[in-house]
Design goal:
heterodimer; A: about 85% helix; B: about 250 residues; alpha/beta; three-stranded antiparallel beta sheet; globular; binds adenosine-5'-triphosphate; binds magnesium ion
C-alpha cells in the first residue's frame, strides 16, 4: 500500500496526527531534559505508568486517564527525592522507577497476568489511538509549547546553570516542578505511540541527534522536533507495512537518524580539519 | 551605612559545621578581599548571601534593591555541559534579572551585552560556543554576565584562577575601576599578594571570622600573624611590594 493510500484511512490519519504531536512534545521537552542530565526521567516515569495502566485496566477505566495522575504524582516524588542533597538525581529516578515497576507488576499479576491490553501498552499501539487521546495530545502540545515559548530564556538559564538562574531571579523551584510535571504528562501521552518500554527513547534520541549538528540552542530545538517527527511518520508507515509494533520501529529509525547525525558531524569535523590544514 | 550586614550567622552541612557565629558589616563602596583556607566556608558564605542556601541561625541583611543590583560569578563555571549557547548568549543571560516574564531580549539588551563583553575582553569570541572556550575565556564571559546589569554589589568567587597573568592584571584593573565608580566588591581569593594592591579591606574566614578590617589593621593584627604563622612575613612583603601604598 502506498503512503497516499495509507493516509486515506481514518485510523492512519489519527495515528499520524497523534504520532506527530507526541513526537513534537517529547523532542522539545527531551532537549531540556537531556541537557539537564535528566534524560532518564522518561524511563523512570514510564515504569510508573505501568502501574497506572494496570490500575486502569483492572478498574475498567481508561488506562491513559488513570495513569496521568499517578505518573504526575510520581514525578513530584522524583523531584522531592532528588532535592535531598544525599541522593543524586539519577538515583532518585532509579528509586521511583523501582517503585513503579514493582507495583505495576503486582497489580498486573493480581489482574490475572499480562493480557493483550497491557501488552499493547508495553509495546505501543499507535494504530489504536482514540479520539479522546488525540485531543489530550493536542491540548498538551499547545500547553507545552506555550510554556517553552513563555519561559524560553528562563529555561535556558535553568538548564545552563541553576545557581546562577536563581540569583538572576528565575523561579528555579517552580520551573523544575513544572518540568517534571510536563515530563509526566508527556510520558503518559506517548505511551500509545512508543509503548512503556520505549517511551524514554523518544525523549532521548532526537535531542541527542540534534545536539550532534546544531550550533545554537534554537536550532537544536527545531532540529530535535523535525527529526522526531520524521522518525514517527516513517516509523508508523513502516510498522503498518511490515506489521510490526510501532514503538519499536519508530525507535529503530530514531537510532538510525542519531547514527547518521553523529556520522555527519564526524565527517564535517574531518573536512574542517583538512581544509584548515590546506 | 552598609550594604551587607551579617549577624551571628551559622551554617552546617549535615551537622558538619561550615560557618560558626559569623558577624560583619560591609560598607558601600568597599572592596573586600575574602581569604581563608580551603573549606574555610567562603563559598558557603557567598551562597548564603545570595540566598542559594538558607541560614540555619543568625541573619543576613542586604541593602540593595533586589536582584538586579547584585552581580555574581561562581567559583566553578558550573556544568555548562553540552548546552549549545554562544558566549554572547551566555553573557546576555545576565540581563534576565532585569526582566519580567516573558523575559525576552531586545536590541538594547544585545548592545549592552556587546558592551559588557568588550569591557571584559571577550567580544572577539562572542559567536563561539561557550563550551568550546578555554577556562579563562569562559571566566571572562561569566564576568561579563555578572557585570552586564550594572550591579551595585559584585560578588566574585575566585574569579581569576583560570586567567593568565596579563588578563589577571587587566581584570583587577577593571574591578578597581568599577570600585571607584562606587560598586561594592566582595572578592574571594587565595592570591593575597595579587589582591593586596586593589582591595581596601580583608576578611579572613576559617569557619569563624578570624579577621575583618582595613589593610593597616590587617598588617598590625596579632590574629593575622597568629593565623598565617610563618607566612605572615611573606604576605606582608607581598602587600608591600604589591604596591599596597606602603601600608605595611
Ligand atoms: N554541598 C556540600 N555538602 C556538604 N558539605 C559541604 C558542601 N559544600 C561545602 N561543604 C563543606 O563545608 C565546608 C566549607 O566549604 P566551602 O566550599 O564554603 O569552603 P571554601 O572556603 O569556599 O573553600 P575553597 O577555598 O576550597 O573554595 C567544607 O568543609 C566543605 O567540605
Ligand atoms: Mg570556595
Amino acid at each position: 500500500m502506498g503512503f497516499v493510500e495509507f493516509l486515506s484511512y481514518d485510523f492512519a490519519q489519527r495515528a499520524l496526527a497523534a504520532g506527530v504531536l507526541v513526537a513534537l512534545i517529547t523532542a522539545a521537552l527531551g532537549l531540556f531534559l537531556v541537557l539537564k542530565r535528566m534524560a532518564l526521567i522518561g524511563d523512570s516515569l514510564s515504569h510508573v505508568a505501568l502501574s497506572g495502566v494496570a490500575l486502569g485496566l483492572i478498574t475498567n477505566l481508561s488506562p491513559v486517564f488513570v495513569a496521568m495522575p499517578v505518573v504526575m504524582a510520581s514525578s513530584l516524588a522524583v523531584y522531592k527525592i532528588s532535592q535531598s542533597a544525599k541522593v543524586y538525581a539519577d538515583s532518585a529516578l532509579g528509586i521511583v522507577s523501582a517503585a513503579g515497576l514493582s507495583s505495576g507488576l503486582i497489580i498486573a499479576a493480581l489482574a490475572g497476568g499480562f493480557n493483550v491490553d497491557l501488552l499493547s501498552f508495553l509495546f505501543g499501539s499507535i494504530l489504536a489511538v482514540s479520539g479522546a487521546e488525540l485531543a489530550l495530545a493536542l491540548v498538551l502540545a499547545v500547553l507545552i509549547f506555550g510554556f517553552i515559548y513563555l519561559f524560553y530564556n528562563e529555561l535556558t538559564a535553568l538548564v545552563f546553570d541553576e545557581d546562577f538562574a536563581q540569583t538572576a531571579g528565575v523561579k528555579v523551584r517552580r520551573l523544575n516542578i513544572a518540568l517534571v510535571l510536563i515530563s509526566a504528562a508527556a510520558v503518559v501521552i506517548a505511551l500509545k505511540v512508543a509503548g512503556i518500554m520505549l517511551v524514554s527513547a523518544m525523549i532521548i534520541l532526537p535531542p541527542c541527534a540534534a545536539l550532534q549538528l546544531a550550533e545554537n540552542f534554537k536550532r537544536a530545538l527545531f532540529l530535535s522536533c523535525a527529526l522526531s517527527v520524521a522518525g514517527v511518520v516513517l516509523g508508523v508507515y513502516a510498522a503498518f507495512l511490515l506489521n510490526l509494533p510501532s514503538g519499536a520501529v519508530i525507535i529503530l529509525i530514531d537510532l538510525l537518524i542519531l547514527a547518521l547525525c553523529a556520522g555527519v558531524k564526524k565527517y564535517a569535523f574531518k573536512k574542517r580539519i583538512l581544509t584548515k590544514a590546506d | 551605612m552598609r550594604v551587607i550586614e551579617v549577624k551571628n550567622l551559622s551554617y552546617a552541612y549535615f551537622g558538619a559545621s561550615a560557618l560558626e557565629d559569623v558577624s560583619f558589616k560591609i560598607k558601600p563602596g568597599a572592596f573586600t578581599g575574602v581569604l581563608g583556607p580551603n573549606g574555610g566556608g567562603k563559598t558557603t558564605l557567598v551562597k548564603l548571601i545570595l540566598g542559594l542556601l538558607k541560614p540555619q541561625s543568625g541573619q543576613i541583611k542586604l541593602f540593595t534593591d533586589g536582584w538586579a543590583q547584585i552581580g555574581y560569578m561562581q567559583q566553578r563555571a558550573a556544568a555548562a555541559g553540552l548546552m549549545p549557547l554562544s558566549a554572547f548568549e551566555v553573557a546576555r543571560l545576565g540581563l534576565l534579572s532585569t526582566k519580567k516574564t516573558p523575559k525576552i531580549f531586545n536590541r538594547q539588551d544585545d548592545d549592552a551585552t556587546l558592551q559588557a563583553m568588550q569591557n571584559t575582553g571577550c567580544a572577539e569570541f562572542k559567536g563561539k560556543l561557550f563550551y568550546e572556550l578555554s577556562g579563562g575565556q569562559q571566566q571572562r564571559v561569566l564576568l561579563a554576565r555578572a557585570l552586564i546589569n550594572k550591579p551595585r554589589l559584585l560578588i566574585l568567587d575566585e574569579p581569576s584562577t583560570a586567567l593568565d597573568s596579563t588578563s589577571r592584571e587587566v581584570f583587577f584593573e577593571l574591578l578597581s575601576k568599577l570600585n571607584k565608580q562606587g560598586v561594592t566588591i566582595l572578592l574571594i581569593t587565595h592570591d593575597i599578594g595579587e589582591v593586596g594592591k586593589y582591595v581596601d579591606s580583608f576578611l579572613i574566614l576559617d569557619k569563624r571570622l578570624v579577621f575583618h578590617g582595613g589593610k593597616q589593621a590587617f598588617c598590625a593584627s596579632p590574629e593575622v600573624t597568629k593565623y598565617f604563622g610563618p607566612y605572615t612575613q611573606h604576605i606582608m612583603d607581598h602587600l608591600h611590594h604589591g604596591g599596597a601604598n606602603g601600608v605595611c
